[in-house]
Amino acid sequence: MAETDAAGRFLQALSEPAEPDEGGLEMVPSRLARAAAEAVGVDGVALSIHEGAGLRTPIGASDRVTSHAEQLQFTTGDGPCLRAHDTGSAIVFDLDDINRNWPDLHTALLGETPFRAVFSVPLAPPLGPTVIVDLYARDLITLTQVPRDDVEAVVLCLTEELVRTSGGVSADEGGARWWDSPAARRRSRVWQATGQATVALGLDVVDTLTVLRAHAFASGRVVDDVAEDIVEGRLDPAELRDPSNR
Prior knowledge:
Blueprint: H1 6-14, H2 28-40, E1 44-50, E2 56-61, H3 64-76, H4 80-87, E3 91-94, H5 95-101, H6 103-112, E4 117-122, E5 131-137, H7 140-145, H8 148-166, H9 182-201, H10 205-218, H11 223-231
Antiparallel strand pairs: 1-2, 1-5, 3-4, 4-5
C-alpha cells in the first residue's frame, strides 16, 4: 500500500532495492536524494557539504542533470545553497530571484538545465547547516505547492539516515563512507588543481579558485572539468595568467 505521509513515502522509496553499482555506503547520498525527490514531488535533489570560504563538496544527487546544476552553483561561486548555509535557514529562489542575486548563475541554469526554481534547506542538527539539500523544480509552482511540513519531515529522515550510516565503516578499516561518494572524490580534484595553480600563479587559495572559476565560466565549462584538465596535465595552470586563455 502506498504511503500517504512524506516520511513514509521517503522510507518506502529508500527501501527499494539498490542498483547493482549503488550498494556501497559511498552511494547512500545519491539514494537518499532520489528518495527525497520522490517523497516531496520535486524534479531533482542534491546534497552538499559546506566548509567555509565558499568551499562546497557535493556528496550525492538524484540524477546527472541535478548534479550538473550543483556544479554550476559551485562554478559561479554563489547561489541558493550557499545562502542557506550562511543563514542557516531554508529559502526558495525562482529564476527572477536568482537573476537579481546571481546573474551568471541565472544564465547558466537557464541555458544548461530545465530547472527554474531552487529550494535550499539545511539538514537538521547535527549535520546542518554544514550539509545542505537543494530541491530543484522545473517551475516555481512545484515548490510553492510542496507542503513545508513534508519537506521538514523528509529532511529529518534524511538527516537520521546519514547519521545512522556514519558509523558503518571506520576510517581505519579503509572502507568507503558516504562522504567519500564519487561526486565528492571528483570535487577533491578541484582542491588538488587549486593547490597546483596556487603555486604556479603565486596567489592564495581563495584568489586561485576565483581564477579557476573565471576560466571555467568564460569557456562555458564547470570548474570540475577545468580542474580535471590541470590535474591530468592537459592545462598548465600558469597559462591562466593570460586572460586570452580563458
